[in-house]
UniProtKB/TrEMBL annotation:
Xref: Pfam families: Serpin (PF00079)
Single GO cellular component term: extracellular region
One of the protein's GO biological processes: regulation of systemic arterial blood pressure by renin-angiotensin
Protein name (Swiss-Prot/TrEMBL): Angiotensinogen-like
Record-linked Gene3D superfamilies: Alpha-1-antitrypsin, domain 1, Antithrombin, subunit I, domain 2
Keywords: Glycoprotein, Secreted, Signal
Position of the signal peptide: 1-19
Major localisation: secreted
Span of domain Serpin: 96-256
Length: 263
């Protein structure tokens, strides 16, 4: 009987110890407060939109304004990050990067595979910030944005924008370690003529690149559209980029292009 009693006491103690723990989901490390959620919701409801100018335009549109002013970029730093935040972000990027890398290896047997996990993750986060309904939910799951409670739409959107800034900080730290290293990133959005883009969506993409452009292109003529886009990207790259876009769906309304230069 004493043995049974001792075992019961031990079990009770273990139960108490096991229950006396609080699990904090890593996602909460990037959550915004309620006032931030209200602010985001208000901006979406206002629905301010921008219609990009033609890709043939030779003037800088007003909506780009100071978007490409490199002097306004803050010096990269991770001093405000905690160890948990860095670990959580790196895990998400690594896991998704390996999934894509494995898929590419199977599809391109015997060929070299070059993949940047941070650029890949950043692009998918950008897609998520501009998505809605089921597409947004699917991307949310793919990216690992799974909040344990609260308002998932607001929290996830805020977190997505925060992740873009964090990922860009990591990329810029690579350059800051070597002044002779050339590392730059240009983001361009090409949409069909007359298509209006949410201003909020465009502003959320700014932290992810050194330069940002938005232009209208007639996708009805795929061949000509590809030539125009290639020429535009190469011109903005000041001769250091070589665009090789070939196939465009004539029914397309939006094309997302990222030009990364490393030398």
């Amino acid at each position: 009987m004493n043995l049974v009693a001792d075992l019961l006491c031990l079990l009770a103690c273990l139960t108490v110890v096991t229950c006396d723990r609080v699990y904090v989901h890593p996602f909460n490390l990037f959550s915004f407060n309620e006032s931030d959620c209200d602010k985001l919701e208000k901006l979406v409801q206002e629905g301010k939109t921008i219609v990009p100018v033609s890709i043939e335009s030779q003037t800088t549109p007003d909506y780009e304004g100071g978007m490409n002013d490199n002097s306004k970029l803050e010096a990269p730093s991770l001093s405000t990050w905690g160890e948990k935040e860095r670990s959580y972000l790196s895990d998400l990027v690594y896991v998704l990067g390996m999934r894509f890398y494995s898929a590419l290896q199977k599809a391109q047997r015997g060929q070299n595979v070059l993949l940047s996990p941070t650029s890949l993750y950043s692009s998918l986060v950008s897609f998520y910030l501009g998505a809605s309904n089921q597409t947004a939910l699917d991307l949310q799951g793919l990216l690992g944005f799974v909040p344990p409670s609260g308002n998932p739409d607001c929290t996830s959107t805020a977190v997505g924008s925060n992740f873009l800034s964090s990922l860009r900080t990591i990329e810029r730290l690579v350059k800051s370690g070597d002044e002779e290293l050339l590392f730059s990133k240009t983001l361009s959005l090409f949409c069909a003529p007359g298509i209006a883009l949410f201003q909020l969506f465009m502003e959320r993409l700014l932290p992810s690149a050194d330069a940002f452009y938005a232009r209208a292109v007639d996708f009805a003529n795929p061949g000509e559209a590809a030539k125009q886009i290639n020429a535009f990207v190469e011109a903005k790259g000041e001769g250091q980029s070589e665009a090789r876009l070939a196939d465009i769906d004539p029914s397309a309304q939006l094309l997302f292009a990222v030009d990364v230069r490393l030398a």
